[in-house]
Amino acid sequence: MFGAILGAAGGIAKGVMGAIQAGKANKAIRNYKRQDLVNVHEGRSVSTRAQEYAQEQLAMSASTAMQGIQASGVRGVVGATSKIVGNAVDSAQKIGAQIDVAQTQLDAEKAADEVRIQQTTEARENADLAGLGQQLATGQQNLFSGIGDLAQGASSIMAMGKANQADGKTFMGGTPS
């Protein structure tokens, strides 16, 4: 009888501990803080210093060339001006293309880091929540196991008590007064 009582008491303790564990896990899941990761490329921009310098050099070259051509007379100015303007336009387009390539590369790096951030965040959160879910499941399992142990202990106590009474003893096994 004493063993059945201890078993029932152990079942109560296990059930209470399981309920506490499940409650803590449930609270942790409800209060779970999402992670906030930052894109390593945030705030970066394409440097245009080299292109600005190239444009300045181009303007100076064109100016110097125009001064030299002006000294050669009207025919020289007319013929060379279109060539200088054409070269200036071509160079400006190349400079613009370089800036565009650099911006496209930066945009791709930002997008790739956003993918990395999303994957990292998702993996971490999935692992965290899976662990909390396991803790919740374990707590619930212990709660129901404790209830089962209590029911089994109570059943054993009842069976022993009835057997004692059938043998002419008190429920707890003592001799009647």
Overview of the molecule:
- It is rod-shaped and about 145 Å long.
- Helix 1 (2-30) packs antiparallel against helix 3 (74-166).
- It has 177 residues and is mainly alpha-helical.
- It has one domain.
- It has helices at 2-30, 49-70, 74-166.
- The mean pLDDT is 83.
- The longest helix has 93 residues, at 74-166.
- The chain is built from three helices and no strands.
Largest sheet descriptor: none
Distance between the termini: 20 Å
Number of helices: 3
Could you spell the SSE succession in H and E letters? HHH
Structural class: mainly alpha
**Percent in helix:** over 70%
Query: Overall mean pLDDT score?
Result: 83
Radius of gyration: 42 Å
Strand content bin: under 5%
Number of domains: 1
DSSP summary, beta strand count: 0
Shape: rod-shaped
Which ranges are low-confidence, i.e. pLDDT below 50, for 5 or more consecutive residues? none
Topology of this structure?
Blueprint: H1 2-30, H2 49-70, H3 74-166
List key phrases describing it.
rod-shaped, mainly alpha, 177 residues, single chain
Give me a quick take on this structure.
The chain is mostly helical. It has one domain (2-166). The chain has three helices and no strands.
